[in-house]
Amino acid sequence: MTDSHVSNSDDYSDESSGSGSEVSEDAPPPAIPAVIANWYLNENLGSGYSGSIFKATQIHTRQVVALKVQYVNHECPTNRYERHLYPLLQGGIGMPRLFASGVEGAWDYLAIDLLGSSLDSLYRRSGKDTMDLRSVCSIAIQVIGRLQFMHHRGVLHRDIQLGNCVVGLPPNDRIIYMIDFGFSKRYIDPYTNRHIPDSKAKRDFIGNYWFSSVNVHCRGKVPSRRDDLEAAALMFIHLLTPRGLSWTRNGVPKTTEAHDRLKAEKRKATAEMLCRGLPSEFEEFLAYTRRLVFKECPDYALWIDKFRDLAKEEGYQDVDNFIWPPPLPVVLAVKSMNTPLRARTPAIPRDEMEGILNGLGKLNLGTQAVLGDRTNVQAAIQKAKEDAKIDSTKQNGQAESGNSEPIVISSDSESGAVPPLRRQAAPKAIRLNRLSDQASHATDNAALARLVGEFVDVLQMNSSRTLTKEAFYFLDVLYKQLDDPSVFIRPPRRTSRQHSFSELVPEKEPAHVKLGVVARLRQEVGKCQSNKALAVLVSDFAKVTNKSTGRTVTKDGFAFLEGLSERLKLLQ
Ligand SMILES: Nc1ncnc2c1ncn2[C@@H]1O[C@H](COP(=O)(O)OP(=O)(O)OP(=O)(O)O)[C@@H](O)[C@H]1O
Where are the transmembrane segments (predicted)? Predict the structure, then answer.
């Protein structure tokens, strides 16, 4: 057990015990022998409060494992409990396999998969005061996935911390494993198949000082699934906060008063306070875990998706794998022909572009193998021609009036000979904030119409079509401009997604409610006769999206925003 642990031995009353040891209870622990049962002990990998972990070799088969060794009379005999938990967790990704367990002489041992470094030691060794966002998103995706699996098997971890998340050894070094099930417990009663009961009685705390949930640590409540997730949320936030969560900075409390102060600080810290300056997903995740009721099953998949989307929006690839040291972000590829992308810059006429491409194709680049390769140019010309045909049948008269669409060179060139065109895309958040600033200075409807159009573009360019806090902020600015521009005051920027029109709507609503409301808004937007009427619709749109679980903009939602842009052009 690490020094940040507090345990309560009564908590194990529901677990079977019995070491089979004949060692006198008063005897001091003897020296650890070189061989325990069939295991030859190599180097020490780490020591906790209740025992030590060795790299060990099976003397007959030469199998190499991690051997967790504990003195049988230790006051906190976690091996005795862990051996009953491991079988419940076998077969899951990131769950160590248990190969053998038993008691020999004074030693209780567990032979498990040999694994790599803990996140704690990776983080410390990096020498940085925060971990990078990509790594934290990967950790979030994997740790939430591990908890989903454990909970699905009816087991709570109850001691989520960086030291208990370790990476595997190659080839599994991109997988995070959960270890240390010494405090774990079944929350589904195996006889009744029911969730363990809640209790009003205050119980002794079990867990660790840094990340245990407020309910468990500060209020003495019975741990359930929500508390594992809250601990995970605190751990993610800790990794992104310079010098970590404030209550971790003074070390382990040594007196009851110091522990009480730590608890008071933790209890006071709201999700909003802890997550200032972080991507809103972290604040929302922590707030979500704190809203869960005792027996509620968390929506693990939703949060895994959100952290995956967040990482992708920031330009990170392959985030389901924990890659250490972290790779640099890959800049976003330009949208391919298949993805809708509006042109806001003046279009180069199609025939002019074809001329340029032909000219490029005729360049005499001699024998230089790469520059002289024209396959991509030919492919682009061909594709441009094909698209011209498709578009001209679609657009009929438009081409005659000189209103031609730009050619977009597809990044998925069939030849595959040239890497895709890449551009440095400003992250979604920055672009949305820029739009909000422009909206706050807009003086007429034409400008607002253009900005709403760009808002749609930004949302559609991202794989995640969720309304982020920056998107809500834009809607807030827009609402205030439409409602009464003469008294327009720029709303304060906040990290939360709750803004002036959405402050009174904390409850979630079922998906069909959102779909119905947005479909109505889509119909109504074309009939509005004033900016004030449009403001009401913008407010309704923001509210209903804020209340929906995924906060995703639906097809109707996009149609509403596009209708809004059109209507603004007409209501000059
Ligand atoms: N399977 C493993 N492979 C490699 N190293 C491991 C393994 N399990 C644990 N370790 C190392 O040993 C340390 C202690 O392990 P563990 O947390 O399981 O023991 P503990 O006695 O319960 O300690 P704690 O006080 O942290 O709860 C870990 O921090 C880790 O670095």
Answer: none
pLDDT recorded at residue 329:
72
Q: Of 320, 294, 58, whose CA–CA distance to 156 is shortest?
A: 294
Q: Is 312 annotated as a binding residue?
A: no
Question: Hunting for tokens 């642990």 — which residue is that?
Answer: 5
Q: Which residues of 177-204 are buried (b: 16+ CB within 10 A; e: fewer)?
A: bbbbbbbbbbbbeeeeeebbeeeeeeee
Q: Which of 159, 228, 309, 476 is catalytic?
A: 159
Q: Can you tell me the ipTM of this complex?
A: 0.93
Distance 266 CA to ligand 1 centre (A): 26
The residue whose CA is least distant from atom 30 of ligand 1 is 46
Which residue is listed with tokens 């810059």? 345
159 annotated active-site = yes
Q: Tokens 């906190």 identify what position?
A: 76
Is the CB of residue 313 less than 8 Å from the CB of residue 430? no
Question: Is 90 exceeded by the pLDDT of residue 353?
Answer: no
pLDDT average, residue stretch 414-419: 34
Structure tokens that stand for 210 in this block: 């840094």
* Nearest residue (CA) to ligand 1, atom 24: 1
Q: Collect all residues with Cβ–Cβ distance below 8 Å to 18 and sequence separation of at least 6.
A: 80
Centre of ligand 1 to C-alpha 54, Å, is 9
Task: Give the pLDDT confidence of 249-297 residue by residue, as tens digits.
Answer: 999 999 999 999 999 999 999 999 999 999 999 999 999 999 999 999 9
Alpha carbons 248 and 250: distance in angstroms, whole number: 6
Residue 45 beta carbon below 6 angstroms from any ligand 1 atom: yes
- Which residue type, as a one-letter code, is found at position 285? F
pLDDT of residue 501: 64
- pLDDT score at 390: 57
What sign for the dihedral angle of Cα 43, 46, 50, 54? negative
Cβ atoms 217, 6 nearer than 8 A: no
Segment (H or E) for 446? helix 445-461
Which DSSP category does 466 fall into?
B
